[in-house]
Specification:
Layout: H1 2-7, H2 11-28, H3 36-41, H4 58-83, E1 96-103, E2 110-120, E3 123-130, E4 133-144, E5 149-156, E6 163-171, E7 177-184, E8 194-200
Antiparallel strand pairs: 1-2, 1-8, 2-3, 3-4, 4-5, 5-6, 6-7, 7-8
Length: 204
């Protein structure tokens, strides 16, 4: 009895100590001891409170639909030029004088020259000047690789001296055409074709 009084281990104290231990256990392991208070306090992430978004007015839906139509129309305009393979620009778009920068066919030598594309009646005439050499020929808008690509094709000379150039075109920052392509002899295989770029000379 004396030992109980000295240590304070009375029957009542033992009960209080055990209850205090249980309360600490409940606080430390609330997810394990399923007490009503702790269960309601710990909610999984997927049971977070719902947020109610106000419903947009009919005018807002109309504006969103108008924006959607505008975006779709813009995308369509970007796709059409790439897919409209059955149409060519008007030939007059390419008419003009060009600065020619190129590499000689089957040679590493580079050169500068001039090319003039013009329309004479119903004929498309090309004039090619490199140094003292002037070649007269024709040009046309044609398909290449079946109908996969649209190109400008120029033809010069006759017989064994024939030259043919196939050029792709793009549009520069000033909305003028720019041509780049290969020059070769028709029906003669080569691994080293001529390479040329044509920059249009804006009219004065």
């Amino acid at each position: 009895m004396a030992s109980d009084q000295q240590t304070g281990n009375r029957p009542g104290n033992e009960v209080r100590t055990r209850a205090h231990t249980l309360r600490r256990s409940h606080r430390g392991y609330a997810g394990y001891f399923h007490t009503p208070k702790r269960v309601t306090a710990m909610r999984p992430c997927h049971t977070m409170p719902l947020r109610f978004v106000p419903v947009a007015s009919p005018s807002s839906f109309l504006r969103l639909r108008s924006i959607g139509f505008a975006v779709a129309a813009g995308c369509l305009l970007l796709i059409l030029p790439a897919n409209a393979q059955d149409e060519f620009p008007d030939a007059s778009f390419f008419v003009g004088s060009y600065r020619l920068i190129g590499k000689v066919l089957e040679c590493e030598e580079a050169f500068l020259g001039r090319v003039v594309l013009r329309i004479d009646g119903e004929a498309l005439v090309a004039e090619r000047t490199v140094g003292d050499s002037i070649l007269m020929g024709t040009w046309a808008l044609e398909y290449a690789l079946g109908e996969e690509m649209r190109v400008v094709r120029m033809r010069f000379g006759e017989g064994e001296n024939r030259l043919e150039g196939t050029y792709q075109w793009s549009v520069d920052f000033d909305n003028y055409p720019r041509l780049s392509g290969y020059v070769y002899r028709p029906q003669v295989r080569t691994d080293d074709p001529g390479m040329e770029v044509l920059f249009i000379l804006p009219p004065p």
